[in-house]
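Blackboard transcription, Thursday session:
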Amino acid sequence: MCSILTKVRPIHRAVALSLRLGASTECSRYAATQSRRLSRGVNSVVDPLLINARFYCSRTAKTEGLLFRQFTYLHCKFVQNTICHLFEVESCTYTYLLADTKTKEAIIIDPVLETIDRDLNLVMELGLKLTLAVNTHCHADHITSSGLMKKRVSGLKSAISKFSGASADILLSEGDKIAFGKHYLTVRETPGHTDGCITFVSADESMVFTGDSLLIRGCGRTDFQQGCPKCLYDSVHDKIFTLPDNCLIYPAHDYLGQTVSTVGEERKFNPRLTKSKDEFVEIMNNLNLPKPFKIDVSVSANLVCGLHGL
Amino acid sequence: MCSILTKVRPIHRAVALSLRLGASTECSRYAATQSRRLSRGVNSVVDPLLINARFYCSRTAKTEGLLFRQFTYLHCKFVQNTICHLFEVESCTYTYLLADTKTKEAIIIDPVLETIDRDLNLVMELGLKLTLAVNTHCHADHITSSGLMKKRVSGLKSAISKFSGASADILLSEGDKIAFGKHYLTVRETPGHTDGCITFVSADESMVFTGDSLLIRGCGRTDFQQGCPKCLYDSVHDKIFTLPDNCLIYPAHDYLGQTVSTVGEERKFNPRLTKSKDEFVEIMNNLNLPKPFKIDVSVSANLVCGLHGL
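(Written on the board underneath:)
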């Protein structure tokens, strides 16, 4: 495996060296607020269905030879309601597996400690060579499995933003490319939820993995872990809303059981990000959210790739 | 809207009249067992990744102009474990929305009472014309929203298998086609979990909605609601495993946070359906599962399209 970590500026630069996994380069949250439905008063006139009817949401990616899987990990809370359910889901954390179907090189995004067996079982079944476990940021609501995964998968590297403050084999920054076989994801720095948040864009811009920077009809909170509402607003508008309207958005969480959205939809319907920057800052500064249940144990563990260390 | 309900035999007959929604045609479960991982001893030699690398799992459907969304609804249970989680997910129920991006005609599969607002909000946002709410069977673990949805969406029809014993506007049987715009799903009868289970296959056979007949690495239990392990074995082998290996499987449930599988994977890795029929029957007759929590209220409600009646 070659070992090239290349910075690419500007973001859209077409020809770029790739970050090949196995890099020897020396390098080294608090999760989302509830994304609640749903304001009507939006200022975009785009019709998400008509932008590009050929591709819109009929598939998860239009790239041939790309394997893609979305997994869920769920946190529940006690809620007594009227329809005899005693527990409801508080958060759904998504993990993504991507692979080249020919070379079988694979990467995993935001893996969760509790679901490591599920994820590695599928990797084994499909005969994949998992080369990188990457986190979109230093999560505060769950513990990453990247450290334990490194102990169980020979040659596996971990990666996270160089601004996250966390340790990892590879520290990522704007324009870096994460390659697996003939495919790659490009890193876009999207600070605001935390100062180390990054977003991954597929080569054909048909998929974007937004972490907590942009959720379906919501976004990550900005009231700790170096959160900054102005930064988040700029990140989303400059780095995500500039993608094609039919680009599929795969976030780190959802609270309503939604699995995917599109840039066009969020540009039109996101109740926070369709506001002016001043209105957005006002909203974010007045959410008055409780401290996350697991923040103390999660953040300290995630700073070193999880409970099992780097 | 035209009103034609046509039976098509054999299943693969290419030219067929369609069941158009809004049909005036007079027509007259217990949900899945845990699908646990994961036996290695399988008799297929197919490599799910190499079957058709062009399409395998890189998208949820290869049909142009088809909008597709997968939603989750989650049941939790109390589980004291060692990593400070007090509640775990007992079941995840999937709902599917499909639409023609041009005509905006849409159908919904297995909608859940508790998530009706989420589902109808998205229908409204995307400007869809929801014409049919269809259930894969008479569910025993949750209550359908099809009855309430009919009250809230003008012109909406409900549909279910004619063998389900349940009431609906349209009673479906083998070979019927459910059309929305230029797209359609074909009905395959797959009894065994219940005698009224049906499976929906997309026109290009790139997607199959299997209800509880086939789950990811599992299948629905067969110990009540006219369950029959022999029938289920034949249903899966004759009606689902005969689809292309790269056909994406969207089940009614998952218990491990998995969102999709493929026919090739299940043919190779399903720990039950890779066995002989006799072994399968032995397994299914000895699951010794507890009675579902909500079976009494769910089944009686679902026989009439949910709590709100037909």
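Lecturer's comment: Chain B touches chain A through 66 residues (CB under 8 Å).
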